[in-house]
Write a structure and sequence with these properties.
By secondary structure, the chain is α/β, with parallel strands linked by helices. It has a single domain (about 5-195), classed as Spore Coat Polysaccharide Biosynthesis Protein SpsA, Chain A. The chain is about 40% helix and about 20% strand. Strands 1, 2, 3, 4, 5, 6, 7, 8, 9 and 10 form a ten-stranded mixed sheet that branches. Strand 6 and strand 7 (about 125-130) form a beta hairpin. Helix 5 (about 140-145) packs parallel to helix 9 (about 220-240), helix 6 packs antiparallel against helix 9 (about 220-240) and helix 8 packs antiparallel against helix 9.
């Protein structure tokens, strides 16, 4: 049985997914045990199966067509078998030793859920990142207004919703499930900001509508705090764009919060 299953939805990601998968498989060289990568193609393409044919530790599911990232992650989880679960987008990557650091932290703190730091990058350059700390709480997650991904025991699984910001919803729900605080690792999740990515091609007003919908569903306290903060910054970013500004959301937040790296 694998120690960790890494869930990767793939939509038009044939040019980037190799680096994403390689960054995870490189972690297996240390003490993580067996790593399983489950790729869920959602663009109808059979190229992923061809690209990873015979690759140890990589399971490529049958392709679907535009189910969305949330349902695709759920599908990957259903096919996985690891004791621990985490996610990775097909155009992102992780720092060396990522899984080892997270598993070691979970073991030393006897925790069922630990979080990694996240760094948003554009053209290889850092835009902003979660500040270093030993613990992540709801206030810190809300203040960052970005995705902060977890490694967690299979029993804690929460379905990804079929909507935008589905990863942020699960991040916050997991933190709530373990009492509102969890250990934070120094391991870095590298989120690549791309001009053809969902964040860049979706109007901020659409994200704001989703944030309002989540807040209207009376979710957990942590989810409420996180999405209220995201909505506040989203509305400010909307005003920035309406006033002729051209900064992307994460560049805008970095400037607004004065946390350029």
């Amino acid at each position: 049985m694998p120690t960790v299953s890494v869930l990767i939805p793939a939509f038009r990601a044939t040019a980037t997914i190799r680096e994403a998968v390689d960054s995870i498989l490189a972690c297996e060289a240390s003490a993580t045990g067996k790593v399983e990568v489950v790729v869920a193609p959602d663009d109808g393409s059979g190229e992923y199966a061809t690209a990873f044919a015979g690759a140890p530790g990589v399971l490529v599911l049958e392709p679907t067509w535009r189910l969305g990232p949330g349902p695709s992650r759920n599908r990957a989880r259903a096919a996985s078998s690891g004791k621990w679960l985490t996610m990775l987008d097909a155009d992102d990557a992780v720092s060396p030793g990522y899984l080892d650091e997270l598993l070691s932290l979970a073991q030393s703190t006897r925790s069922d859920c630990v979080f990694s730091r996240i760094r948003y990058e554009h053209d290889g350059q850092p835009v902003r990142e979660l500040p270093e700390a030993s613990v992540l709480d709801a206030a810190a997650m809300a203040a960052f207004a970005g995705s902060i991904h977890a490694l967690y025991r299979r029993e804690l699984w929460i379905d990804y919703p079929d909507t935008l910001a589905e990863d942020a919803f699960v991040d916050a729900s997991l933190l709530d499930a373990v009492g509102g605080t969890a250990p934070l690792s120094g391991a870095i999740y590298r989120a690549r900001l791309r001009p053809d990515g969902i964040c860049a091609t979706t109007p901020q007003a659409t994200f704001n509508t989703v944030y309002r919908q989540v807040l209207g569903q009376s979710p957990s306290t942590v989810v409420t705090d996180v999405f209220a903060a995201k909505l506040t910054l989203g509305l400010l970013h909307d005003r920035h764009i309406a006033g002729g500004g051209a900064l992307s959301f994460h560049h805008f937040v970095a400037r607004t919060m004065n946390n350029y790296k």
